[in-house]
Amino acid sequence: MAERVFFLISAFFYLLRAIALARRATLICCHWMAPCGAMGFLCSRLLGRPFVIVEHSGALHLLERSSIGIRIAGMLASRSKRVYVVSADLKRKLETIAPEASGRIEVIPMGVECSAYRKTADASSDEWGSTGVSTQDAILRHQDAILRHKVPASARSHLADQNDIRDNGWVQPERLKVLFIGRLTRIKGAGLLIRAAAEVPEADITICGDGESRDSLTELAKWLAVPARFPGHVDRARKRQLIEECDVVVVPSILLNGRRSEGLPVVCLEAMAAGKPVIGSRSGGLTDLIVDRDNGLLFNAGDHEMLASKLRELVRDPSLKLRLGARAAVTASHYDWSVIGERFRRSIAGVL
Fold first, then answer.
1. Residues 94 and 127 grouped into a single domain
2. What span, in angstroms and rounded, lies between the C-alpha atoms of 118 and 82?
C-alpha cells in the first residue's frame, strides 16, 4: 500500500514538472512510450501542444505483455504526431500491435559523436601514410592497403620489432582483446560471451558495466576458468579509452522469451566510429547496422559456439580485423549526430 501511495505521489509531481516545462515548448518530445509517452500525452491534451515519442525498445516490450498495455501503446502511437523507433525490428513490432498508426511510425536510430572517436579511427590510417585527405578517404585507402597487402616500410619495421611475422608479412597477435560494455542484465548477453571465451583461449575478456547479473557472471567466469576482467561501471572518458585499446567489441544481445530484443545499442556505433570491428548477434537493430563480413560479424542470437567461431576468425586473420574496422568507421559516419539530427529536424518540421 505504501509503495502505491509513493508511486502516485511521485507520478503527480512528475506530471506537474512536465506541464511546467511543456508550457514553454512548441513540441513535446517523449523518450519511451511509458511512462514518458503517457505523460506527454496528458500534457498535450491539457496544453494543446503536439507531441512525438522516441521508443528505444524497453517500454514497448513492457506494454505488449498485457492487453491493457497493448491498448495504451496503440492509443499513444495514434495520438502522437510521430513515433520514432530506433530499428526496423521495432517498427514491425509496433505496427503489429498498432496497425492504425503505421503511417506515423518512422525509423531514426540514435547517433554517435564521430569526432570524439576520430583520433582512434585515424590512428591506423596515419600509420599507413594517409595524410592530407578526409577521414573517410583515409579509411578507404587504409582498407585498400590491407586488401592488397601493401604495407609501408614504417609499418613493416613496427611489425618486425614484435618478432612474430607470418610469411605474408602480417603479424599474428598472441592475444585478442575483447570488450563488452553494457548493463549486466540478461538481455545484454554477457554470459554468452563468457561461454564463448571459454572456447577461445587467446581471447582476453573485459566486461564493463554493472547490474543485477554481475555476481552470477563473475561466478560463471570462475566456473569456466575464463580470466575475465570486471571493472564495473565506467565513465565516458574511460569507455573511450577501453574502446581505443581493444581489438573487437562484442554486442551479444539475446532474445528474451523468443521475442523481446534490444533496439540499437549505442556502444555498437561508438565502437564502429573508433574503427573497431563489432561482433553482434542477429537481434533487434544490430542487423540494421552490421553487414556480416563487410563492416562487422554477425552470429545467431544465443549461439555461443557461433560467437566463439567468430572470435577465432579474428585471432587467425588479423587482416580481417583491420578490414572490418575500416569499413565500420565509414558506416558510423552515416550515423554521426550531424546526420541523424538533420533527419529529426526535417521530420519534426514536417509535423509542426
1. no
2. 33
